[in-house]
Amino acid sequence: MSWLNDFAMGFRLAVGGSRALRTNLPRLVLTTVGIGVAVAILLLLASTVTALGERSHRLAAREPVVSADPASLYATAQTDIVGGRVLTATSLEVTGPRAPVPPGLDALPAPGQIAVSPAFAELLATDPLLRERFPQHVSGTVAAPGLAGPDELVAYVGTTGLRDSHFGEAVSGFGAATGSDGASMQLVFLLVVAVAVLLVPMLVLLSAASRIGGAERERRLSTLRLAGARRGQVHRIAAGESLAGALSGGVLGVVLYLALRPSAASLEFEGITVFRPDFAPGWPLGVAVALLVPALAVGPAWFGLRRLVIEPLAVLRNADHGKRRLWWRLVLLALGVVLLLPDTLLGVASRPRETLPFLLAGSTLLLVAVPAVMPWVTELVVRRMRGGGPAWQLAVRRLQLDSGTPSRVVAGVVVVLAGVITLQIMIGSVAPDVYGDRAESDLVNVDVEESAEAEAIRLLDGSAVVEGTYRLRWLPATDGSGQPTQVLVAPCELLSRYFGAASCSDGDVLAVSDSGVEPGAAFTVEGVTFVVPSGSVAVAPGTESVARGVSLAVTPAAATAQNLPDTGWMLQSVLNSGSPEALERVRAALGPLEWRATVSSEAEYARSGEDFIAAVTRLLYAGGLLGLVIASVSLLVLLAGQLSERRQAFAAMHASGVPLRVLGRSVLWQNALPMGFGVLVAVGVAIGTGAMIVRLLGPTTTLRLDVTFMGVVVAVAVVLMLAVTGAALPALRSVTRVEALRSE
Amino acid sequence: MSLLTATGLCKSFGATEALRGADFAIDTGEIVAIMGPSGSGKSTLLHCLAGIVRPDQGRVAYRERDLVNMSDADRSSLRRSEFGFVFQFGQLVPELSCLENVALPLRLGGMRRKPAEAAAREALDRFELGDLARKRPGEVSGGQGQRVAIARALVTEPKVVFADEPTGALDSLNGERVMGLLLAAAKDVGTAVILVTHDVRVAAYSDREVVVRDGRTPAQVAVP
Fold first, then answer.
1. Fewer CB atoms near the end CB (10 Å): N or C, chain B?
2. Cβ atoms within 10 Å of A338's Cβ, excluding its own
3. Is A224 on the interface with B (CB under 8 A)?
């Protein structure tokens, strides 16, 4: 019989009907569901990767090619947030013939005209403040080739004066960049961990499914041997049985993918959207998924057979495999740890770009190591357990006989828990450093072209939301030992806010206490020597981001007194509110200046960070819940299988007087013990991995544990475990009936 | 020259000695019953003769070929084409129909489905089981199931059929019917039958009885 016939025979056995189907059907259904969901997840992830790649290409295609020589087109881009969405407005000035046209545009807008994306046009029509800011005549639409996503807010504004401003860049064409848009790095990390977190429970589910009806399957394979099947043939037939699940699972996966694709393609994550046609797996990834499907199905089945010697009369278990080997589990763990300490152990420079591959590989390896270590940990702990009531004793003795299977299933839960908690720790620890905690800040920065400064101050002073506008600047400097630092020149109104100085008057110099600046110290500022006067005031380090890294703060009169350069001024306004609307009003007020004034706000940046954390946390909760539900189904399946296979033992115990509640509690303990270790291992692994990742992300990043998040996730795991035990009770009641004592 | 011979077979399972120097021989077309009390080593002897269990000592030769040192693939091939098996129960694959069960050894041997199933149907008809072809083992009675097993054992027209308590799970009426069919069919194609039983009524169908006691074969009795 050829290999194909062997596989076909296995397939036939998997879909056998009648009484046999009752045993095979749950396995087939679970395998189908497991592979189906795994395939759908993989296809969605592959589509996401392709869509993000396409998005990057689209962004690259509209990136201006900056020329050092005079050109026919000058451009400057401003990016800010409108209604929680990123707006990219590019001002263009045509100065000659054959000016390049960005993708998505038919023609360049003339001064006083604006071309907008469909999403921006919609917003412009409904938001009067935005219209006030962009009063130009809408002359065209930015079509799909010029957009990264369908909901992207993009505008091209025709203008004048750019050629003569340092804001304007000479543009010789479009399509300069080849890299990603920055968000991709974070997304790649999220995707890799998501794949690990979601696929491991799937593999555990498949492994649990392959164990359903294990005794019947072994008997069947043994019969095939008796009828003359060779060892290899039996393995191929067993693989063929699994292929039935692979085929149906593959079909289900594709159907699920096609059903979910429209919604998934239209999902928005942190303002990132993709075009639906871009949301497809692409052939290399599609082929990879297609190859992975049979591997997902056949792998666990084949792996399960490696310990079995299938003979014509019986199936034997290889004694060589009886004792669990620790070394390779520890190698996985150790490799994971080594990869997460690349700077210390491998001499890799501690810069994110260099350490990211190590971070990805190390954290994934640690997550994969968890299911490998779990059976060993469970076995070690269970072996030492003694005493207790009958229910406890029954559970412990059962686990002592075979703790591997339940702990492997629980390992699925552990991977999910460890994965989501690690991600949460990482994001929760990093985000405050990146985005700060200034969501309520009432300061806005206005980067203004020199010639428009007076007009900008006039417009700002005329706005109802602005309480005051001040000039400030940072000057790069070197201290006496040649170390680079910054000198901040700003009026007392701002310096008092930044450094909390009790008193300040124009002409004062503030020395930041932890920078070691003493009176008499000399700084070199753009070639000018600045000596810290004896009357300088010592202040604590500033809390606002504009004051970070500043050693010395100087009032305008003091700057003038020591002849500091009078260039690089920007404006800062104090608003009567830190709300998004106040910021919009400021931008609208400065609308007439077009590209000449750019408004940014710490509050806006911090809010975007909060939105990002909230979005990721929602994803983590959803992913974690999905993973936990899958793992719980595996646990239930395993439990049902165990009850069925041990029905005679249960029936005999019940018949000889063991109450049902004792048996029920023993089943509960049987789940609760591995689950308990699992939760402990998960939290431990997550905190350990999180700490190593956070350490790698920078010296200023500190480990922040969200106890509420951990508590909720762990509580959900425990509740699901109780639910699984509860759901198995009817089956327990059924197998403890006297009829179950019959053997043939 | 005997079809299948065994000399000085010893086999232990842990500390238990199942066979302690058992001898056996069977000729083409002969029907031999192996008898003895429970735990005497009857089934172990049968399994050693069939090449299912490898003896610790001794020799088993089938047509002068050493079965003990034969590769697993060769022994599988023998089981498929030249040996047939009928056991007490659990020998049919529940997922397959009766027809597919009977065709199984042919298909495992590489025969295509149609000719294999045609041969299987013929075998089923011979045992008056044609109506059960599409039914699965779980849907037929114990006696019918044993007859299907016999049809499967004989479909390849084997040289030897090994039967271990083939009527052990049947009532006496069905038992007699099964034995009658098995032996008649075997005689038709000249198949030797080695029959393990502790039932004297079953042993009465044989040409000769081999008694196993404490792992030895002290007595061989011709059945009148």
1. C
2. 15
3. yes
| Angle formed at CA A531 by CA A526 and CA A537, multiple of 5 degrees | 115
Task: Answer whether A528's CB lies under 8 Å from A558's CB.
Answer: no
**CB pairs below 8 Å between A and B: how many?**
91
Q: What is the mean pLDDT of residues A445-458?
A: 89
> Residue range B132-161: average pLDDT?
88
* Chain A residue numbers touching B80 (CB-CB < 8 A): 227-229
Interface touch A228/B108, C-beta < 8 Å? yes
Mean pLDDT (chain B) is: 87
List residues in chain B touching A: CB distance below 8 A: 47, 52-53, 72-73, 76-81, 85, 89-96, 100, 104-105, 107-110, 136, 138-139, 152, 169
Q: Does A230 touch chain B (CB under 8 A)?
A: yes
Q: What is the enclosing helix (H) or strand (E) of A8?
A: helix A3-14
Contacts of A238 in chain B (CB under 8 A): none
Q: CB atoms < 10 A from the CB of A256, how many? A: 18
Q: A82 forms bridges with which residues in the sheet?
A: A85
Q: Work out the number of other CB atoms within 10 angstroms of the CB of residue A324.
A: 13
pLDDT band, residue A258 (cuts 50/70/90) = very high
* Statement: residue A178 has pLDDT above 70: no
CATH 3.40.50.1980 fits B4-211, yes or no: no
- Taken as a whole, chain A contains a residue count of 744
- A213 Rama sector, left if φ>0, alpha if ψ -120 to 50, beta otherwise: left
Distance CA(A293)–CA(A281), nearest Å, equals 15
pLDDT in tens, A349-369: 766 667 777 887 888 888 778
Spell out which residues of chain B touch residue A21, defining contact as CB-CB under 8 Å: 95
What secondary structure does DSSP assign to A142-163, as a single string? --GGG-SSTT-EEEEEE-SS-T
Amino acid at A262: P
User: What is the ipTM, given to two decimal places?
Assistant: 0.82
- Pairwise CA distance, residues A646 & B172, whole Å: 32
Give CA–CA dist B51/B159, Å, rounded: 14
The residue with tokens 């070639």 is A527
Contact by Cβ (8 Å): B47, B53: yes
Judged against a pLDDT cut of 60, whether residue A464 lies above it is answered with: yes
pLDDT tops 70 at residue A488: yes
Instruction: Please determine, for residue A207, whether its predicted confidence score (pLDDT) is greater than 90.
Output: no
Interface contact B108-A1, CB threshold 8 A: yes
User: Two tokens at B141?
Assistant: 């009675």
| pTM above threshold 0.90 | no
pLDDT tens profile B72-114? 888 888 888 899 988 877 678 877 889 989 998 888 888 888 9
Which residues of chain A make contact with B105, given a CB cutoff of 8 A?
227-228
Rounded-to-integer distance, Cα B35 and Cα B53, Å: 19
The CA distance from A659 to A663, in Å, is 7
pLDDT tens, position by position, A106-149: 999 999 999 999 999 999 999 888 898 899 999 999 999 999 88
The C-alpha atoms of residue A76 and residue A249 are separated, in whole angstroms, by 52
Q: Quick count: other Cβ atoms within 10 Å of Cβ B103?
A: 27
* Max Cα distance, chain B (Å): 49
Mean pLDDT across A449-453: 86
Name the residue among A364, A271, A262 with its Cα closest to residue A615: A271
Which pLDDT belongs to residue B188? Answer: 84
- Per residue in A515-550, pLDDT (tens digit) is 777 788 888 888 888 888 888 888 887 766 667 777
**Residue ranges per structural domain of chain B:** 4-211
> At A439, is the pLDDT very low, low, confident or very high (cuts 50, 70, 90)?
low
Question: Please, which residues bridge with residue A199 across strands?
Answer: none
Task: Lay out the sheet containing B31-35: strands in order across.
Answer: B83-86, B160-164, B192-196, B31-35, B208-213, B216-222
